[in-house]
Write the structure tokens for this entry.
Amino acid sequence: MKFKPLVLLLALPPCMSSAAETPVLEEILVTAQRPSLIPFASSRATPAPALADLAGALAELPGAAVVKNGPLTGIAQVRGLSGDRVNILVDGMHITPACPNHMDPPLHYAAAADTESLTLIAGASPVSAGGDALGASILARSARPAFAVGDAWQVHGKIDAGFSGANDGWNLGLNASTGNRSDALSYAGNFAQGDDLKYANGTVKDTGYESRRNKLSYAHATESGRFDANVSQHRVRDAGNPALPMDMVKDDADAMNLAWEGKFGDTSISTRIYWHDIEHLMDNYSLRPNAGTRMYAPATSTDLGLVLGGKRNMAGGRVSFGAEWLVNDFDTYQWNATTNAFSSDILRDASRDRLGLYGEWQGALSGAWSANLGLRSDTVMMDTGKVRSGAAQAVVSTGLGGAFNALSHEKTDHNWDWNALFQYAAAANRGYEVGLTRKTRSPSLLERYEWTPLNASAGQADNNTYLGNLNLKPEVAHALNLAVQGQSGGQTYKVGLFYQHITDYIVGTPYSTDGVTNVLRYENHDARLHGLDGSWAYQLAAWRFAGTLSYVRGRNMDSDTDLYRLAPLRVTLQASHQHGAWNNALAVRMARGQDDVAIYGKPGTGAALNNEKTSPGYAVFDWHAEWKANKNVKVNFGIDNLLDQLYYDHLGGINRVSGGDVLVGARLPSAGRFAFVQLEWIL
């Protein structure tokens, strides 16, 4: 291989601090699903154990933002694309949310206390990272059981405990493991609880939560490979969602994940089989005032996945190949709690299955050039049963339901993606990148099969009702990514530019039916997104200065309107100082006011679209400190929002809950000034 200077650049960690740290390239080569060449527009977060919602760790990464409808409902947004458009893997598992409003997005099922790394690939995500998504990949990886050097069993453990004044929340976690040279066993458990969020002028009603997680893992090592197995249990109770019409009163998930990786001759092989089952319950009366009709909605989502991948040296580089078979079964309905009678199906006996095949080559080209080239095919098969309505649970034969039931629901999409990533090592400390991609995403079950206007919108929370469309085409995105990264003296930096054109982008479009107002039917449009993001750091003796920048602009080309709920221009700056066992940091988080919002339909029609509200800009100061008492005890503490500023995250949503300090229809505020403390004790 002749691209060692490029490898040195890729080895820089996300904060671009020290080239002597563990190379990112080596850490990513873990399973067949993980990419083997990391684009410059990639970064990594180490989640704080105190995070109740793992998605919160994304907020510190360039290009990423979090759509929040409640304390445990962080929906990832990367370069303007959210939800199902982002490829997310939790320990190699693709998880389908059970909630039609995505109260339980994939990262909801990963515990921050047990997550070893959260990797974001914002640029030209390789085809081996996954399919059926339009842009970025997010890879959450939990700590695996660790082997010891000899035959004797060694025991390790860690306790995390913390408190946050933002919501009088507290967390307690235990990680314990034992192992020898061939076998290892570990347990991870954590509990978190919080009350209503406090802001500068009061509290945000309906923002409490309680969660419990347990996971037991086993690993066995042989001369030819490694076997891993784990079972996990996830329990959430009474998690409010003030930006949505219902709350998450129960969310139970159980999972089993088996994986093997090893060598077969000159080929590295990785296999994985997993099962993830969710029982979800939401209602509109347990956690919020409701003088109207009381409803609750149970939902179930079961994912079964089988993954096979291989890698070997070939054609002057490294060839990766693999197959993925993913099966999802989904059901959800509404029940009238006032009359104690069945109301209607939302989705009944629904299924969404996907078979993916990919091939990828990575290697050195002439001179200082290297490349990652990949081709992928995904066949998506979807179906759903006939819907029922009324206390008698009769199959609907009239109106929208009758028209829906009279049609065939079976759909099959044949999609294909490709990726061409070229990197040029101009010097040992500077590199350039060009990435060209085609990505495809088939419609979700909700987008195709939502047969009657409902507030279910995969978490868009725009107060409209949505209607599915059986005739939707898959979204196809073509993207150009440009990037540069380098290091000079004590300074490191990376900057990425991107442009993405999406054909058949799926978006709600004004639609009239049966006199119901504010109905948006999912339709195909053309859209484009462009922007830039980056990070930098400068080390000066014991001082370190760092920052990030993220900007995206999205446009619906057919209606000539801005895309809905995009994060505004954001900048973070931080200065930290290391002295002995102490590290102190002062940071400022800034956001420009968001005026580019989705307000109207096609010019001249007067049709309401998302009616999105603008939001003001802000600058918020935080102080964080770390004290290492010894090699086993570490304490993190600090004060966020030092000036107790009243500010609003544009992605935080609009309040729907009455009876609190925030008016119905007003934007939800962020936390006021609060102190926090977190203890980590290695046993």
About this structure: The two ends are 43 Å apart (CA to CA).
